[in-house]
Write a structure and sequence with these properties.
The chain is an alpha/beta fold. The protein contains 15 helices and eleven strands. It has an eleven-stranded mixed β-sheet, sandwiched between helices. Bound molecules: glutamine (GLN). This is Glutamyl-tRNA(Gln) amidotransferase subunit A.
Length: 452
């Protein structure tokens, strides 16, 4: 049914870069056979899943939305894909994204943007716009995203779906094509909070192949989502971040958010204001740290090891082949990030930019730690604005970067955060974000599920 739905609507939505119909049917038949043999199957056995194209899938094209990886078929599965297969889920294919997960609209995909199912002339968010749009268009019931600065939550918010960024290290990065290794976090996207929790439980948990993976049990996320669904938040204390009050957000977004805060109060939650004075420096710190790590990570795309290679005819040196390949294979936003990062890391500037940004990161972590001594979780709008029309923010990078104003602090800290639909503004979806302490992923599911 999902393959039929994709065939019927994806020429308009363009959520998928690659549909693996044959692989999906084969996986579905294998689940049927296991069931027929009387095997006990997990809760997601036979459930179709779309996977963001930045995640390696054995034998299935993986481009990260870039021309430089066109035609590359990875020889291995990411850990989270291994776990999806072991759970009996059926992979439908690979979802569209901004090139190397850099962007907030999918307009930077080298293969053309994804259209928001709510209004095909508007962006579906990014970088994981394909994963969110596939859910909103009923092309898949579950999808995988990755969140470095907001790429799971912001697309969730602007498509009226749920997106959760787990605690950094709670889900394995092994087999993700790296953007910013100290921030990248794979996580679940779904249409309901409980569905997201079910997917979270399947992909999460310690992985010895990722040195930053946390060797601790997965928090009880499914139980928490079900507890939240009873609609009782008595005794739960939620914090509104003073520094986020209205700053940069559209009035319609703030109105929907305030209504959601009222609803949370009626469910028994106590709401207080919490000051996080360093949050205002999160965006500039992120745009030094993430490009710095990206400039290092993307050095591996050299025309020799993976995908595209041009310049063999006429180039005078290996270095020239690499430079011609990288010039042809990377899009403008990726080049901007590589240049920014290379500059910030160069000797003489390192202390002034990268070193300074790392200090800010520590201060933001302290803000979170102090906040969670006062409240159980923080809440905010997920993103300052609803889905915008194509082209509205591409001419000024800063305007695009603002989409992640409220999501980025969490990445710098490393805690979990979820976006859940909380109403409409001008007929378009608005998301509410719940941020929790590291390894308290269950807490964010409880609060989000109660609101739903
Ligand atoms: N939009 C942010 C950026 O462009 C975040 C991207 C992400 O989370 N992958 O870097």
């Amino acid at each position: 049914a999902h393959l039929d739905r994709i065939a019927a609507v994806d020429d308009r939505v363009h959520a998928f870069l690659h549909v693996d119909a044959e692989g999906a049917l084969e996986a579905a038949r294998a689940v049927d056979a296991r069931r027929a043999a009387g095997e006990e199957l997990g809760p997601l056995a036979g459930v179709p899943v779309g996977v963001k194209d930045v995640v390696t899938t054995r034998g299935v094209p993986t481009t990260a939305g870039s021309k430089i990886l066109e035609g590359w078929r990875p020889p291995y599965d990411a850990t989270i894909v291994e776990r999806l297969r072991a759970a009996g889920t059926v992979m439908l294919g690979k979802t569209n994204m901004d090139e190397f997960a850099m962007g907030s609209s999918t307009e930077y995909s080298a293969y053309g943007p994804t259209n928001n199912p709510w209004d095909l002339g508007r962006i579906p968010g990014g970088s994981g716009g394909g994963s969110a749009a596939a859910l909103a268009a009923y092309e898949a019931p579950l999808t995988i995203g990755t969140d470095t600065g907001g790429s799971i939550r912001q697309p969730g918010a602007v498509t009226g779906t749920v997106g959760a960024k787990p605690t950094y290290g709670g889900t394995s990065r092994y087999g993700l094509i790296a953007f910013s290794s100290s921030l990248d976090t794979p996580g679940p996207c779904a249409r309901t909070v409980e569905d997201a929790a079910l997917l979270h439980a399947v992909i999460a948990g310690h992985d010895p192949r990722d040195s930053t993976s946390i060797p601790a049990p997965v928090p009880p996320v499914v139980e928490a989502a079900r507890l939240g669904a009873t609609g009782d938040l008595t005794g739960v204390k939620l914090g509104l971040v003073t520094q986020f009050a209205g700053e940069g957000a559209e009035p319609g977004v703030m109105a929907a958010f305030r209504d959601a805060v009222d609803a949370l109060t009626k469910l028994g939650a106590e709401i207080v204001e919490v000051s996080c004075p360093n949050f205002e420096y999160a965006l500039p710190a992120y745009y030094l740290i993430a490009p710095s790590e990206c400039s290092s990570n993307l050095a591996r795309f050299d025309g020799v090891r993976f995908g595209l290679r041009v310049g063999d005819d006429g180039a005078k040196s290996l270095e020239e082949v690499m430079s011609i390949t990288r010039d042809a294979g990377f899009g403008p936003e990726v080049k901007r990030r590589i240049m920014l990062g290379t500059y910030a890391l160069s000797s003489g500037y390192y202390d002034a930019y990268y070193g300074q940004a790392q200090k800010v990161r520590t201060l933001i972590t302290r803000d979170f730690t102090a906040a969670f001594e006062q409240v159980d979780a923080l809440i905010s709008p997920t993103t300052p604005f609803v889905a915008f029309p194509f082209g509205a923010r591409t001419s000024d990078p800063y305007q695009m970067y603002l989409a992640d104003l409220y999501t980025i602090p969490t990445n710098l800290y490393g805690g979990p955060a979820i976006s859940v639909p909380c109403g409409l503004s001008e007929g378009l979806p608005v998301g509410l974000q719940v941020m929790a302490p590291t390894m308290a992923d269950d807490r964010m599911y409880r609060v989000a599920s109660a609101l739903e």
